[in-house]
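ok so for the tutorial part 2 we go from a plain amino acid sequence to predicted structure tokens. step 1 is just haveing the sequence, like this:
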Amino acid sequence: MLTVLGRFSARTISSAANISFSRSSRTIINRAGTSHIKRATVNPFKTMTTNVPEPAKRFKDDHPSATSDRVKIGTHDGIFHCDEVLACFMLQQLPRYTSAEIIRTRDTSKLDECDIVVDVGATFDRDRHRYDHHQGTFNETLRTLRPDMDVKWDVRLSSAGLIFTYFGEEVIKQILKDKLGLEQLSAECLRSVYKKVYEGFISEIDAIDNGVPMFEGGEPRYNISTHLSARVASFNSRWDEPTPESGSLERFEKAKAYVGQEFVEKVTYYASSWWPARDIVSKALANRIALHESGEILELEKPCPWKEHLYQLEQEQNIVGTPKYVIYSNKENDWRVICVPVQPSSFVCRKFLAKPWRGTRDSELEQISGIAGINFCHQNGFIGGSKTREGALKMAIASLAATEEA
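step 2 — the prediction. this is what the tokens look like for a chain of 406 residues:
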């Protein structure tokens, strides 16, 4: 069971209540008909190249074997959690489950009538489409169930993680087709987006639902009460409100619309914005020797999410650790020099900007460095600024030669 860590505001819940998903178009709309995700006008995927072969179909066709006219998705009644809400949403993005009836019950006989069951039943059976994770014998992770993905994550899966494990690629393709008009996706792009959505969205839900601590030992210095699982929990009735009838779907559907919007936004962002940035980083790596003989400085043609792409491309090109600085134009007369961190979220860098510059600005920085036009160096030395490209490049080159003791 999840603990409700925080209660979402009444305004937000009211706002979420106005969100619905059209069964015919499955475009996220509000009651006024305003689209929350704009259709893309440019398809960046056609320019992507890949050496990764199209993988063979790994799993059997997942067409339900319904005994009635309408397909049924089963999950538990009572208090709902983010994992089964998201699991149901993901399934209903697929044509065969779009119009599926959601049955909320713990009655075994009723669950037996369902075509697919999530988060209830104490059974994980891929062949029978039973996806519960609460039984003591269940210890599966994305890494154990999908070794073909070559992932590092070993968080025990929730029902959301289980559904994403087996249906995630198909769900991603369907969302991108519906929301961006993207009919074809390279195998390399699909694989990268799949892994990124798990890392940046699903894994957190898996961990929270299974009570996995973020770190071992000690007490956190602060609590995060606004994560998605807490926000979904707030759609349940409060302790001092009447208990909904067994199997009631009204609050569940509001929560599903809410979590679904966030999931769709993640998928479309990773596919249409994050992934195309790989080409920009690839070009910067290809031009690094021409930029500076050391090969340790990269220039991006425009600002973009570059760190994870850099780490992956470094491994592919066998140059891990070589790039030390990234420069790019933030806007007119505003250039940035970024030190490459040892990992994406770290402030520990492979090489910082020159120590004497740190914490100085404008004319003082110009005087200390002898470089015209530079105007900023963070006190920790992980980022600097310049009015010109020439100044930014000189900052990086001078810092390559500087010692930490200087």
